[in-house]
Every structure is written in structure tokens, then in C-alpha cells.
Amino acid sequence: MEGADLSQTLAPLQILDKTYARPPFNKVFLRLYGHHLCPFVEKARLALCAKNLLWQDVQVNLERRTKWHYLLNEGFVPILETPSGKTIFESRIIMDYLEEAYRSCGVRLYSDDVEERVQQWLLMKVFDDVASVLFEVIMSHGQSQPGLAKLHKAFGKLEDLLSDSNTPYF
Q1: How many domains does the chain have?
Q2: What pLDDT does residue 56 have?
Q3: How far apart are CA 136 and CA 150, in angstroms?
Q4: Would you tell me the crossing angle of helices 114-139 and 39-50 to the nearest 10 degrees?
Q5: CA-CA distance, 87 to 141, in Å (whole number)?
Q6: In this structure, are strands 13-15 and 55-60 parallel, antiparallel, or unpaired?
Q7: DSSP at 26
Q8: How does DSSP classify residue 38?
Q9: Residue at 58 is within a domain
Q10: Cα gap 96→93, rounded to integer Å
Q11: φ/ψ (deg, to 5) at 81
Q12: Does residue 83 belong to any structural domain of this protein?
């Protein structure tokens, strides 16, 4: 399929460096821009899977971001692009969009019970805090003592919340 336009398919795409143009909107499928090591992109992927949705995966080289990526979302991922061309940023907002737009697909992402739903939101907030601190520790190659202390504290808080949750998964 050399030279074929893959932008309207489920075929994965790659944006490897600054020379890559932004692909035309996929008018058929959702498209998720991300990086395979980003925990926030993984959260969006898990939501897409839970909703049983098909999407085109676009891997972005975060070390060689394009100008259009910076202009679109300051170079951050995940970015969800809808078939109508709308872009949605931030994993939590992407999850909320998928829950509302595809309510009848797959499983519900959030509980119908408001108190359980608030606990789910709190867990996600604490998880995001863990992921941010973990990134700091990874970037320091484990040498940041303050980062390690914050990570230990964040994991402790997450463990406490998971232990108190009513989910069968923890």
C-alpha cells in the first residue's frame, strides 16, 4: 500500500519528527494521538477499549514534536480527534466525552451512584498525581530524593483509597 492515504483507516500512523504534516481528519474513525509510554494516553486507550470503540492510533515522538502539535495542545498528549474534526485534550476530559457520546457502547466508565462516582474521580486524581511524580523520578533516574519521598507518599495515598474502594478489582 505504498503511497496509499491511510488517514481515513484504522491503520496506525507515526509522527516521528518536526517535518511531519498533520494528517487530514479521519472522517470515519476516532483518532488518538499519544505516546506508548504516557500513562495519561493509556488511560484514554483503556476508556476507548472499555467502550468497545475503534480508533486510529497515532504515535507521536515527544522528543521531536511538530509545530502544529505545539499550536494544537502545547505539545502534550493525549489528543482525541473526532470524525467531525473536533479535538479533545486531557485524559479525564476524553473519558468524560467518551462516556457521554458513547453511553450505550461497552461498559459504563463511572458509577451511577454519585458517592461512588466521586470516589472514582478522587482515585483518578490521585493516580494522576502518582503518574506526575513518577515521571519526575524517572527523569532523574531515581536520583531525586524529594521526588522519591513524594512518590512514596502518593503511592501510600493511592493504596489507602484503593483499599477503601468498593471495586472488585482492588
Answers
A1: 2
A2: 98
A3: 10
A4: 140
A5: 34
A6: parallel
A7: -
A8: -
A9: yes
A10: 5
A11: -115, 130
A12: yes
Q: Do 68 and 140 share a domain, yes or no?
A: no
Residues 17 and 97 in one domain: yes
The answer to whether residues 95 and 51 touch, using CB atoms and an 8 Å cutoff, is no
Q: How far is CA 107 from CA 50, 54, 94, in A?
A: 6, 15, 15
Percent of the chain scoring above 90 in pLDDT = 52
One-letter amino acid for residue 11 of the chain: A
Q: What is the DSSP string of 89-157?
A: ESHHHHHHHHHHHTTTSSS-SS-SSHHHHHHHHHHHHHHHHHHHHHHHHHHTTT--HHHHHHHHHHHHH
Same-domain status, 97 and 118: no
Q: Which amino acid is residue 4, in one-letter code? A: A
Range of the domain at 75: 13-101
Closest by CA to 106, choosing from 30, 28, 38, 54, is 54
In a domain, 108, yes or no: no
What is the number of helices (H) and of strands (E) in the chain? 5, 5
pLDDT one-digit tens code per residue, 51-110? 999 999 999 998 888 899 888 888 899 999 999 999 999 999 999 999 999 999 999 999
